[in-house]
Specification:
By secondary structure, the chain is an alpha+beta fold. The protein has six domains: about 5-55, Helix Hairpins (Orthogonal Bundle); about 80-305, DNA ligase/mRNA capping enzyme (D-amino Acid Aminotransferase, Chain A, domain 1), CATH 3.30.470; about 310-415, Nucleic acid-binding proteins (OB fold (Dihydrolipoamide Acetyltransferase, E2P)), CATH 2.40.50.140; about 420-490, DNA polymerase, domain 1, CATH 1.10.150; about 495-570, 5' to 3' exonuclease, C-terminal subdomain (DNA polymerase, domain 1, Orthogonal Bundle), CATH 1.10.150.20; about 590-660, BRCT domain (Rossmann fold, 3-Layer(aba) Sandwich). It is about 35% helix and about 20% strand. It contains 25 helices and 26 strands. A hairpin with a 2-residue loop joins strand 5 and strand 6. Helix 13 packs across helix 14 (about 445-450) and helix 17 packs across helix 18 (about 510-520). The longest helix has 30 residues, at about 5-30. The radius of gyration is 30 Å and the shape is globular.
């Protein structure tokens, strides 16, 4: 392959990956967020382009929208012996030892990724087997799970048998996000590697698919009848051309190894995926193989670990940090020290068991380091005065705590079901665009405010000025951010009753239902507070289930109290009642497909709701109109509408109804 052809193939592969990402984002927006970020025409055009590239390159990625993933649940993961034992690598923390290893040989230097090693086998261009490293001789078969790795090609151009090794990893960002969402993840997973191992070895590969596992190839084991020019570097290039993401790697010699190690060290902070060092392997394949192995290590490769920079300091306090799962995590606060070029003053201790293992007490002399040069950890406790003063009450809500044993690990929990830390989602809804529309309060920021005690109930959001200095000094905040937040809060004080009712998070009450209910109750806050189930059930489109949920919410005295105090914080402006405000009263619409005269479907929905109508997501016997510009399409919604005798109208026809 010429250099020009190689670049063209790489460009096409890059375009294919971009298209997979773009189309998946568009599909998520459409299916999960009910919004369009591109027209159907544009989606179809890009889909066809992706399909063309997949056919041309004979490569299909697992995340491609052209693939229908079949999820499967297994009773156990079968074991399998590796054809070639997977040995560990000899290690050093000294660059002089690397120079000695290199001698006069050229080598390849790359990240030593910190995940789970997986061996893949392809036959006739298709993934047929994936096995974990296991103990190096016997691993677990995880083929179903590998098929849902985010970036793994299911089909490749090469038609012979290909065996390769690589690392399955989860990024730091996904680790943090997933650890928040999984009930007891904080107790189970202490780092991305453990989470990745648990994700890759799931019996249900639908769980694996949701964990955003990625695969990076680092070694080609075998591929018959391919000319690799006796070069490891060329093998990596060939794997890229087959559609694999490969670990970042550079050519290196004895003369350049020190500079290369320094370069990789400088990249660690920017690295999205965890790494615990570097790997050197001779570029000359035949030379490396001729060296054979020791009883434990291959002689053609070497691992480099950075020497941990360790500092001694004094433990000042244990901060107990509640999470939305109810788990209260201990965090060590110590005298600030310089580590790997940054000032560090805190490190997660994870749970009570680790505290007891370290015999951690206030005032102890401890040593700290950065694991993988990134995550601050306690290395050793030099004075070991012992654990004491585990809190009996939650630092956020004051509720009772309990010590629990999870997977043979002692953890601390808050027992109060109404703890604010457990209900960060309700605060997130309150500040969202369709609710009170307070900008500058992300979920992460709200969680910090709750943990710091700035927010205990919804009314506290209007009094964050009490903590002006603390907020200005928070990471990510400053004078300007604080001012913008305060301006947004003041703006939110003028609102409508439907927005306020929706912001409370009453079960089954979306913004559309809130508008219908408030309109029927004359936009009167007291009527909204004291409405009866019978009164609400009579409203078109509400029904008994919604009426019951609404009344039960306000039967709670705490909810009534918060609502009445919120009314003192805001000014309820009357929604303008136009002559058309009842035009679509009692009329149910479903909107599908792309729109041309409106910015998106949400804008059409807004017009319908202004006229008293309601928009639902699926066609049922209660649907009055289906809006679809492709009136004659054979989509499932069109088909259902025809079966039920429901009119399918175009956007033009809908606009005539609006004007008529």
């Amino acid at each position: 392959m010429t250099e020009k052809m190689k670049h063209q193939t790489e460009d096409k592969m890059r375009r294919m990956r971009d298209l997979v990402d773009i189309l998946n984002r568009a599909r998520r927006a459409y299916e999960q967020e009910d919004k369009e970020i591109m027209s159907n025409y544009e989606y179809d055009r890009l889909y066809d382009e992706l399909l063309g590239l997949e056919n041309e390159l004979n490569t299909t990625l697992a995340a491609s929208p052209t693939v229908n993933v079949g999820y499967e649940v297994l009773s156990e993961l079968p074991k399998e012996r590796h054809e070639r034992p997977m040995l560990s690598l000899d290690k050093t923390k000294d660059t002089d030892r690397l120079k000695e290893f290199l001698g006069d040989q050229k080598a390849m230097i790359s990240w030593k990724l910190d995940g789970l090693t997986v061996v893949l086998t392809y036959r006739e261009g298709t993934l047929v087997k994936a096995v974990t490293r296991g103990n190096g001789e016997v691993g677990e078969v995880i083929t179903n799970n590998a098929r849902v790795f985010q970036n793994l090609p299911l089909h490749i151009p090469y038609q012979g048998e290909l065996v390769l090794r690589g690392e399955a990893v989860i990024s730091y960002r996904d680790f943090e996000k997933i650890n928040e969402e999984i009930g007891d993840a904080d107790a189970k997973y202490k780092n991305p590697r453990n989470l990745c191992s648990g994700s890759v070895r799931q019996l249900n590969n639908e769980i694996t698919a949701k964990r955003n596992v990625r695969f990076y190839a680092f070694t080609l084991v075998s591929a018959a009848d391919v000319e690799f020019y006796n070069s490891r570097l060329y093998q990596m290039q060939w794997l890229k051309e087959q559609g694999f993401d490969v670990v970042e790697h550079h050519p290196v010699t004895r003369e350049t190894v020190e500079d290369e190690v320094a370069w990789f060290a400088g990249q660690i902070e920017k690295n999205e995926v965890p790494s615990d060092g570097l790997v050197l392997v001779y570029d000359d394949i035949a030379y490396g193989q001729s060296l054979g192995t020791t009883a434990k290590f291959p002689r053609d490769s070497f691992a480099f670990k950075w020497a941990d920079e360790i500092r001694e300091t004094t433990l000042l306090e244990i901060e107990w940090s509640p999470s939305r799962t109810g788990l209260i995590n201990p965090v060590a606060i110590f005298e600030p020290v310089e580590l790997e070029g940054t000032t560090v003053s805190r490190a997660s201790v994870h749970n009570i068991s680790i505290m007891e293992e370290l015999e951690l007490g206030i005032g102890d002399q401890i040593t700290v380091y950065k694991a993988n040069m990134i995550i601050p950890q306690i290395a050793e406790n030099l004075t070991r005065s012992g654990v004491r003063d585990i809190p009996k009450t939650c630092p956020v809500c004051g509720g009772a705590t309990r010590i629990s044993m999870d997977n043979e690990t002692k953890t601390l929990y808050c027992t109060n079901p109404k703890c604010q830390a457990k209900h960060v989602k309700s605060f997130t809804l309150f500040v969202s665009r369709d609710a009170m529309n307070i900008e500058g309060l992300s979920e992460a920021t709200l969680e910090k405010f709750i943990i710091n005690g700035y927010i205990k109930d919804l009314t506290d959001l209007f009094h964050l000025d009490r903590y002006e200095e603390q907020i200005k000094n928070m990471e990510g905040f400053g004078e300007k951010s604080y001012e913008n937040l305060q301006n947004s809060i003041e703006k939110a004080r003028t609102t409508t009753l439907p927005r306020l009712v929706y912001s409370l998070g009453i079960p089954n009450i979306g913004i559309a239902n809130a508008k219908v209910i408030c309109r029927e109750l004359g936009n009167d806050p007291q009527r909204a507070l004291n409405a009866t189930a019978e009164e609400l059930a009579e409203i078109s489109g509400v029904g008994e289930v919604i009426a019951k949920a609404y009344v039960e919410y306000f039967a709670d005295n705490e909810h009534r109290d918060v609502f009445e105090r919120l009314l003192k914080e805001v000014e309820i402006s009357k929604e303008e009642q136009s002559a058309d405000s009842e035009k679509f009263a009692g009329v149910n619409f479903v909107i599908t497909g792309s729109v041309e005269h409106f910015a998106n479907r949400a804008e059409v929905k807004e017009e319908i709701e202004k006229c008293g109508g309601k928009v639902t997501g699926s066609v049922t016997s209660k649907t009055n109109y289906l809006i679809n510009n492709d009136v004659n399409s054979t989509s499932s919604k069109n088909k259902k509408a025809r079966e039920l005798g429901i009119p399918i109208i175009s956007e033009e026809e809908f606009m005539k109804m609006l004007k008529g």
